[in-house]
Amino acid sequence: MKGQLSFIIKPITLVMVVALLLLLYQSISTSIGRQKKIGETLDLTASATNILLILANSRDCLAYEAPLSKSLYANAIDVNRLDEFSKSYSGIEPECARSFDFGWRITITELRNTAKGIVGDKNWTFGARQFSPGNVPSVDFGMPVAIVYSEKIVKPGIMSIHLVDGELEKIAGVFDWDCAMGRMNKLTKSSLGIDIKSPITYDSGTNSLCSGSKIKSCRILDCEMAFKNLDQGKHVLTINYVNGKLVIK
Asked: For a Cys staple, 168 with which of 65, 122, 126, 132, CB 3.0–4.6 Å?
C-alpha cells in the first residue's frame, strides 16, 4: 500500500509543481505584455504554443514516459531526451515538431529557488540558429515544464521558443516539404511563385539556403540542391526531386 501511495503522490506532486509554475509564468508574461505592442502575434503565439506542447508531450519528442506504467504526464520532459536533442539538433528543428511555415529555436531553463528568488540554474537549446534578416514577424513565448531526472528527482523549468515568420523560413520550408514528399515517393515535380525582398543564395558546402546581401542568415536544408541564386523580385521556380536531390530552375 505504501508503494502504491507513493506512486500516486509523485504524479500529483508533479502536476502541482507545473500548475504553480504556470501561474507564476502567466503573471510575468502579463506584466511584460502590457509594456509591448505585439500587433500581429496572435497566430504566431498559437503556432508557438502548439510546437511547445508537441515537444513537451509527444513520445517522439521530449515527453517523459514512466518506466512501469508507460504513462505520460502533462509537460513532463525527460532530461535524457533533452540532452540528446541539444546535441542532435543544435542547428536544426527536430522532425517530431517541425513546421514548414516558420523557423524556431528552443531554450529550456531549469529553475532553482534561492534566497534572492527563482533563478535559472541550467540551460539547454536546440533548433535553428539563424533567421530571416531585418524586421520580420516573430514571437517569444514559453511555458512551465517539469524536468524529470528520475522518478524521485523532478525539477521545475521553463521551455521558451523564439519563432520567426520570415521569407527565408517560408522558402526553405517549401524546399524541405518537397524534399520530404520526394523521399516518400509522393512528389517528383512542383512549382513555386515568389516575390523575394532579399537575395537568396545557396551554400553547397553547408547545404544551407541563405538570405541577405552583406550580412547573410542561413538555414540548413534537408535535401541537397542544384540551385541558381536569386535576386530581388518575382520568380517562378520549377522544383524536381531527382535521386535524393532537388533540382530547382
From this structure: 132
